[in-house]
Amino acid sequence: MKYTTCLTALVLALAAAQAPATAKDFLRAEGTRIVDGQGEPVILRGMGLGGWMLQEGYMLEVPQFGTQRVIRQNIEKLVGPEKTQAFYTAWLDNHTTKADVDAMARWGFNSIRLPMHYALYTLPVEQEPVKGEQTWLEDGFRRTDELLAWAKANDMYLILDLHAAPGGQGNDINISDRDPKQSSLWDDPAKQEKMIALWRRLAERYKDEPYIGAYDIINEPNWGFADRGDRNGCKETGNAPLRDLLVRTTAAIREVDKRHIVIVEGNCWGNNYAGVFDQGVWDDNLVVSFHKYWDATTPDTLAKVIALRDKHHVPLWLGESGENSNDWFARAIQLVENEGIGWSWWPLKKIRYNNPLQIVPNAGYDRLLKYWQGKGPKPSAAEAEQALMQFASHDVRYENNVQHPDVVDALFRSPHSLQPVPYKTHRIGANGGQVAAVDFDMGRDGVAYHDLTASNDKGTGPDRVNWNPGMTYRNDGVDLGTRQDGTLQVTGLEKGEWLKYTVEVDAGGQYTLALQGDGKGRAWVQVNGDRLAQAVDGANGQVPVTLAAGRNTLVIGADSGRFDLRALRFEATR
Length: 574
Fold this sequence. Notes:
This is Glycosyl hydrolase family 5. The chain has 12 helices and 26 strands.
């Protein structure tokens, strides 16, 4: 999928209007804002590289495995340890490259959040040859240096994020690759010392580098300190062990690095700060991160963190969000930017469709997934190796990913605009033409389309909403599906829902508009702001329309019943 000329122009215009901060000096916290070297406020607009240094099962379509540790074990069962290591080396080499970073800069991102797995930088405590000492591994540092060079070439900040801490920082084990059979970060002082030592080592390495935007010292702690039954720490009122580790880690960083921002995250996946600042803020260059998923985008949802900001006079940063529809993305970003808060989205790519880049796995990997799901035969070692290496060496690379311009539009243009833009250029020639129904305009719900389930604002429980049940093609809150012949279509249009299309017409005049689809519903049609009097068969109806030369807008809505829509076909009648 390629970006349209129109979208490219919009991205360039947005970049000019909202230019990223020039990294001439270190970012710093000043009052409740993050500022640059000249004291000018900076809105960080970033993307997290989830899945690169730390895999989560859902990103690879193996949620049943969950942690990278278990994914690796299952790969080893098929191809052995040496070929498994070759897979992971290829994965790290190809998942994120300079092409990915160049693309992020073109789209408008001014920062990158790197989720680090500690085991790429140092040995696990259990493997240290000398108890209490730290063995450093060059691979993680080398890859971080390389990513930093790509970021600098694009004038982007790099934020280091310890995503998998030694022992794991919570009972949500997938996000930190935690082995629940081993002692956790909170149960083992040696693992805490290793984490602190790693941050001191990173600070020593990058203390003079202004393109390092900040140190995000521990991702999403989720642990019941006072009550182990409170598994993710959401009811915790003291958080004393968390505060202690944050303070000690900050002190170790400050021994060697006085200039970089330190970012802290509360308990309960970064959102429970009860007790953390009861004794005051311990550093004058500190930023408070919060994470936001699957809830409303009304101002009251920020009330707690805004109160925290104002009470302690510290900047806020939405350090992680995403995994929702484009409409939700636009609303959430508008919400936080209205408060002067920057953000980092999650993630850049995975197998699913609701990110800027989508990994499309090869057929062999799909067969491997079926085997792991108990729905297909076990592949031979050779078949598994070929599928895995193609996945890690080819499928994950930027040039082989599907690009989703609708997601990029939702992150940068739609938060600041209530106007739609074309998803693709639709040209109607002198004799007519056809528009695929799934290529409706880009923009928010109520702007480019309206759907009764446009986003998931209801959490992860039984009331959660699947905004695109077909999980295909684009991430708007419109139900899409695939016919038996492979054709994409809009599915289940029902009363109250509508789609807007922008078309370019070579010759103005009279046309017959034919709707092509399935079902028994009735549709209404609006042309250039005027709604036609008659309703038509939504799946097989025809209606005369008058189109002007040049740009025209059409809206197709469900009047009654329910129908699928595959295409809009125009035929000249003059």
